[in-house]
Amino acid sequence: MKIILTKDVPGTGQAGEVRQVADGYARNYLLPRRLALASSAKIETQVVRQRQRQRQRDEHEVNQARELARRLETVAVTISARAGDTGKLYGAVVNIDVAEAAEAQHGVTLDRRKIEFEPMHEVGESVAVVRLHSEVEARLRVRVVPT
User: Fold this and answer.
1) Domain spanning 2-60: CATH 3.30.70.260
2) Which among 18, 36, 83, 121 has most CB atoms closer than 10 A?
C-alpha cells in the first residue's frame, strides 16, 4: 500500500515522505495511530505544496537571521557594572545581562539561552556568540565599564 507519513516513524521514514509498505502494517498500525495517510493524487499535491511553503519559510527565517547577524556584527553593547579600584566587578556580567543590554540599546530581542558568553568578572571587552539560527551565528562585542 502506498502511504504518506504524517509523523516520523523509525524504520519507515520521515514525515511527508511517500512510502510503499505492507497492507497490514498500514491498516493495523500506521493508519489507526494517524502516523500516515493513504496516498492519493490530491494528498500528494497537498504534501508537495506544504513542503514548498515550509522551504520558503525556512529560507525567509535564514535570511532574517543573516540580516540580524550583519547588524549585530557592526554594533557593541555597553554594560555598566559596579567595580572596585582594580577593575574587578563585584558580581559578574552574564548572558542575560547581554540580552537585556542588546534590547535596551539596539532594540534587538535575543534569547539568553542562545548567547554563548563566558561570564566577565573584570572591566573590559569580550565577544559573545549569538546563535540566531541553526545555520547562522553572530559575534557581538560586549564592553563592560565601571559605574
Assistant:
1) no
2) 36
β-pairing verdict for 88-93 and 120-122: antiparallel
pLDDT tens per residue across all 147 residues of the chain:
999 998 999 999 998 888 999 999 999 999 999 999 998 888 888 888 988 999 999 999 999 999 999 999 999 999 999 999 999 999 999 999 999 999 999 999 999 999 999 999 999 999 999 999 999 999 999 999 998
Classify domain 64-146 at the CATH topology level.
Ribosomal Protein L9; domain 2 (3.10.430)
Question: 77 burial class (0-12, 13-18, 19+ CB within 10 angstroms)?
Answer: buried
pTM for the whole structure: 0.72
Question: Cell numbers at residue 59, please?
Answer: 529560507
